[in-house]
Structures
1.
Amino acid sequence: MNMTEMMTSFNRSVSFKRSTSLGRRAPSVTSPRVRRLSWVSRKFHVLVVIGSLISFIIAIGCGYLFLLPSFSQAFHDYDTSKFNGTFSSCNVFDGSWVQDDSYPLYNATECPFVEQGFNCLGNGRNDKDYLRWRWKPKTCDILRFNVRNILEKFRSKRVVFVGDSMSRTQWESLICLLMTGVENKKSVYEMNGNKITKQIRFLGVRFSSFNFTIEFFRSVFLVQQGWMPKHAPKRVKSTLKLDKLDNISTHWINSDVLIFNTGQWWVPGKLFETGCYFQVGNSLMLGMPILTAFRTALGTWASWVEKNINTNRTQVFFRTFEPSHWGDQTRRICNVTQNPLSEARGRDQSLFSDTVLEVVKNMKVPITVLHITAMSALRSDAHVGNWSDSPFTPDCSHWCLPGVPDVWNEIILSYLLTD
């Protein structure tokens, strides 16, 4: 029976039932024709129910297949479409440190790229509380990333760090974070076979399985250092050429992620007391204050970025000044606390950081400032202290690994994932 015949029979059945209900009571014995129509009606209802059930199952299945990738992504990486709005609209650097037993994110002893001097546990530190703190912004969350997804995102890319030893520490941190997702650890190696040292100007680690590199260029001032000019006073041993970027800057071009920092060396002990003064063009600037020189150097950096970096390809970051926690001006007392500070005690402010914000604000190309000064000011518990490879030389400037630099990298990865 086709559908047309079935509908005709159904209409006849309905018409018959109406006539019997409106007229006199139907006979007690039903005719064969009535029994046949009733059977057809019941059969049709059964087919309708089965058809509806099948349609419902198909709809549910399609919906599940459509939504499954989103659920999977939300499970592994959070829902980045939802995360985009909250992260980009909040101040990720305004928050607090909260305890989190899922930290640390790696074991420094198992990572061959952590300097021995930063592996505090390996150097005898007994308390582990400093490892279990997570940064929680007030109005959003830092993305908890899937390492394999990051490795794929970096496939065939160049990630470049430029700066001082703080930059090198962050470079080591990122390598160790990503190595947790690599099965064959030997496939990750320093490109020139170099051992990580404090003075070497270039270090590059290659993740061969994913064809990308994470590189570090040591440039503590970002601008060029030169020899003593002719006819300079005897106290001048060298100069900083504030109008010329470091002569290794050509190697920073054509990177995909470029992360700068400077600040720790812009102090009298690293400059004037060593005979290093400032120079612009051929002129010595013997009376120029350090902060003015820093502002001039950053202007040179900004002009270089605008001229040489294709920001359609390269995402540029500048990390602000990292506060230290020395007990006095002579830097002889290093009191590493067991827990973070409840207040910054003035270390959350830095004229160097303010200058970075000012310069970047006036640039013509997009730069992301990692304003980590205030958040790092609370972490008096996370410094190397006496747990370095030189235990008789306390260190309240550098950070233990794992530790605070991991959070700086988590913030960078959050920007990259939600961009």
2.
Amino acid sequence: MDKSWMHADRRSKAYELGVEGFLNFALQNLGNTTEIRCPCVKCGNIRLFGVGIIREHLYFNGIDQSYKIWRWHGEPWEWTTNASRNVEEDEQSRFSYVSEELGMDDNDFANIGSDPYEFANIGSDPYEFANVIGDGDEPLYPGCSKYTKLSALVKLYNLKAKHGMSDVCFTELLILQGEFLPEGNTLPSSMYEAKKTLSALGMSYEKIHACSNDCILYRKEYENATNCPTCGISRWKETKDGFLKEGVAAKVVWYFPPIPRFKRMFQSHKTAKSLTWHAARKSVDGYMSHPADSPSWKLVDEKWPDFGNEPRNLRLALSSDRFNPHSSLSSRYSC
């Protein structure tokens, strides 16, 4: 299916015919429906509208050019695509420029996808993740062999995070950089497009209000409390004049749920094989060569057999070696 119209000028006849072809394709594959997902740049396949409104959005906002496989509109997903092969064969190499060359980690991506509505379905969707990894094969501009769309965007975003660049400034930088690059370049032209692309690389997090004295977290039975039941201090931040700013927490804990990270690990064929190696290895010679040979591992299997019988269940080991949480001992660094 020809999708070259997605990159054409929105005033051109090719774009007009492409929009009509896309809408007809969606209606034929989705059947009789009054509302479908809007693939424009602003809606990002999250909002549902009728065909007329979607047509207007595609002309005014433009179609999301990263939406290469129209899976939300009836196009079948095939795991034989380059993007999926890259995910299964060597996911680690795809992120080498993120974790090693650039020194980026989850903290650098912490504010990506922070809007629960704007990026509700991005980051946790394996298909969306595969699409983003597929961008790693797309050159930054025709003939470019040094940078891909994804690697260039990650480098630029790392520069933004390192120097505290505002979103407006970063958008202007993207626009200016795009003007410097040859025609046909794939660099996003706005902060919104950049966030949408990178949100699949980052992982979700939760902000939880906490007592200023570290007594409790305002969750579960304390979710609606305004004062700490232990020390009585207010949940809200106090101004210099002694007034409370309701709605503004005095202390916030950033919680990074482990389960989405576990799921991401199993998206790589190579990593998934390593995670289940303890169950698939050919021989057990009586020597301790893996944590699975330890008494602690076997104790878990005995106490929770349902958990132990599933090789994909992960066991976490916590270590406090050289950890100095209360600075009670002399230390040249702080955790």
3.
Amino acid sequence: MAMAELSTPKTTSPFLNSSSRLRLSSKLHLSDHFRHLLLPPLPTTPNSKISCSVSQNQAPVAVQENGLAKTRKECYGVFCLTYDLKAEEQTKSWKKLINIAVSGAAGMISNHLLFKLASGAVFGPDQPIALKLLGSERSIQALEGVAMELEDSLFPLLREVDIGTDPYEVFQDVEWAILIGAKPRGPGMERADLLDINGQIFAEQGKALNKVASPDVKVLVVGNPCNTNALICLKNAPNIPAKNFHALTRLDENRAKCQLALKAGVFYDKVSNMTIWGNHSTTQVPDFLNARINGLPVKEVITDHKWLEEGFTESVQKRGGLLIQKWGRSSAASTAVSIVDAIKSLVTPTPEGDWFSTGVYTDGNPYGIEEGLVFSMPCRSKGDGDYELVKDVEIDDYLRKRIAKSEAELLAEKRCVAHLTGEGIAYCDLGPVDTMLPGEV
């Protein structure tokens, strides 16, 4: 796909300044809704530069800085075009651009997620976004392919796409970071090895966010083991509030709602107040005690309490494994949907009386859970990206015993990565039981 990139003399208009320069998604196919924002058409001159939007030089290139080679990220194709807008032509409805970083951007989960972000399904139909896509040297061509598809999709809200392999470049000024990229667990790999290998990735990404991201960046860790990876990331980003880090447990919540709805014979939108407590592992605790169906306690609607205590948790934990058995691969689309749900829960007000689950820092929690962990708990939001822990929840002996088991596991994982959190020498005592969720091996 070829396109023209036109160069014009600099304007001296008093209305133009750095704050009024916005990158627009496409010069050639902007909707009429946005055309009135543009200056008159740029004149074609003999010096007009013609470039191909998909070319080899779109990938990060090495540049010299103080004699050292440094990886530089590049805007991609049509997203490199910049238009000047007159200050008085900017409408009141125009929202400030949101910068969103996604790591593992060439993977299957991202392949579903990025198009939901670009469509406005997450941040709203009037919110322009910029996508900053982080990959590895091995995946750079795949990243170019992703950028090409985003180009061809003509999303009017997608203003910029940057691709790169250096988190210190890609994370520059981002306000949201969705960290999906992590090493999968190979045959014979011990949990302790996976914690160390992926922990190093998230330690480095935490340092990068700490140095170059927006000071109030919101971080959602998806790469597993996500609770402990989120802890490592936040410990390496001391300038960012610890409260801003989340571990994704929303897919577990969605699966739990599905199982309760199936058992009760209702549609899943009738299930509310669902909490996943603890670690994203087989020690997680789907909470049927506080959940509601049609506004009633679950135990009043589902009278098979043996199923609730035994079959329910197991069905949630084994859902991913069953999907692999049926389809031959782990979940990607449903994971992307759960990421969308997790973010929307933070940027839209929580319905009155309801809550949602997310893995967050335990300092100051009202449940008696050990501080210094990332633990899935019930939260509410006013829609401003922040949240508060729900205080009006019931915890009986059954629930407390199971929460304590997940808490103990996360404490063991924390000891295993102490060398990555600045808390001393690592010591692994994870025990013989493998608690990784099916589908994540």
